[in-house]
Amino acid sequence: xxxxxxxxxxxxxxxxxxxxxxxxxxxxxxxxxxxxxxxxxxxxxxxxxxxxxxxxxxxxxxxxxxxxxxxxxxxxxxxxxxxxxxxxxxxxxxxxxxxxxxxxxxxxxxxxxxxxxxxxxxxxxxxxxxxxxxxxxxxxxxxxxxxxxxxxxxxxxxxxxxxxxxxxxxxxxxxxxxxxxxxxxxxxxxxxxxxxxxxxxxxxxxxxxxxxxxxxxxxxxxxxxxxxxxxxxxxxxxxxxxxxxxxxxxxxxxxxxxxxxxxxxxxxxxxxxxxxxxxxxxxxxxxxxxxxxxxxxxxxxxxxxxxxxxxxxxxxxxxxxxxxxxxxxxxxxxxxxxxxxxxxxxxxxxxxxxxxxxxxxxxxxxxxxxxxxxxxxxxxxxxxxxxxxxxxxxxxxxxxxxxxxxxxxxxxxxxxxxxxxxxxxxxxxxxxxxxxxxxxxxxxxxxxxxxxxxxxxxxxxxxxxxxxxxxxxxxxxxxxxxxx
Amino acid sequence: xxxxxxxxxxxxxxxxxxxxxxxxxxxxxxxxxxxxxxxxxxxxxxxxxxxxxxxxxxxxxxxxxxxxxxxxxxxxxxxxxxxxxxxxxxxxxxxxxxxxxxx
Lengths: 484, 103
What we know:
The structure holds two protein chains of two kinds. By secondary structure, chain A is of the alpha/beta class. Chain A contains 18 helices and eight strands. Chain B folds into two domains: 1-31; 33-103. Chains A and B meet through helix 2, helix 3, helix 4, helix 5 and helix 9 of A and helix 1, helix 2, helix 3, helix 4 and helix 5 of B.
């Protein structure tokens, strides 16, 4: 019995500590359940809510119950509450106001905020390493966690901002091959910095700050140059990858503070995010390395440009063709999102249905800028769920389709994926629009898709092109159909 | 070599949690349909907003002006990540729900 007493006396234990840890356990469980529920359509919304509940619990518990190793409770509480209020108002306002089409950018933006927060924590904790003593040992897990948090958080922040800019059309691609080499050098240099700092032995942490700032700067530049050469179409994959980076950066904070909620939450997102990234790549039939190194695009030998002639169709002919068909398949792509034509497409499909035409939507899972982009977009325009058909079923129905209307999609209907083994997209599942009796392709011009390869569908005998902005074209089509 | 073993032993609990969480993360989402990739990514994005706890801790012990400013910023950014992340995910999923009601 005495031994038990001795043991309990050695453990500093308060009710608050126990309660805090208990709440962290519950929060971690809620994160896991939330993530699990998010991966099934029926429970997704609840899953998101549960995860949010876990987060709120963890935040409140931290503010009220947390004490550090020296036994100090959280100070600056009024300022913390102000900061949370500011973040909540801004975050809520942005999230509610932004259009559904801009969702991908938004996820990237919020991801960057998390990365920046992680980097700031590291930046502030480094000088505190000595814990009141004159010097601190550098070769510890604490230092490693701080440095990794700083590096990964900054890369994630800078990279997310570039991805945000690219999706918003503000930043272009720089496809310079030398960037690959530069990026590799950056990575090696950053690892070198970490090793260098950790080998310093006992030093005054403040003296190391110049090195830390240089490391911060290099990390930020690396984040930019990491995302810069990757094409706009691959941004979803990049965002997903940066998302998992931020997860790891958050976990570093958990390691630092011995905080299990941060550790589980962060690593969970880190690993789930990595798997999600790989799943996204797989949907495009590409490897992650292929996306990052960016061998995609730029064409090369694969682009068999046999050309041929493109046949245009007039608006009135298109209207007649659509109106007197019995089955029409709309195949949307990123062009639809850019033109913001989702409401008009729905209007057109209703109009055709009123005239006795069966209208369905062939949704390719990677059409648009994010997987599921088209689903969200068309849902916004109130297109009924049962009309959205996935690529496999849509392809099977093509033979019985009179007109396939391809709106701003390119690679997802490119037959090269089926019959040209030298094509970079060979093997990717596509919607076989070409097997419909007629194909109308709405496009702004003869530009290539994001994969930058020729699309022989455009030259097929049963294909007619309708050039112009999708929104204008559909608007005019609607008028023409009404006039019939 | 000894240093590595020592490192491992010192942080064995954290390493344990990390390893298990990695497998958990993989297991939890490996059966997700493509339609849900985006909301799931967005939801996971909100969850790593847990970094805000670290921001609160660091802000709670900030003792000079610079630290308070940086801490304030860290908490604001962390909150943006959390609130924005969850609200955006909810909005995305709202779209899916709306569809179901109409059936």
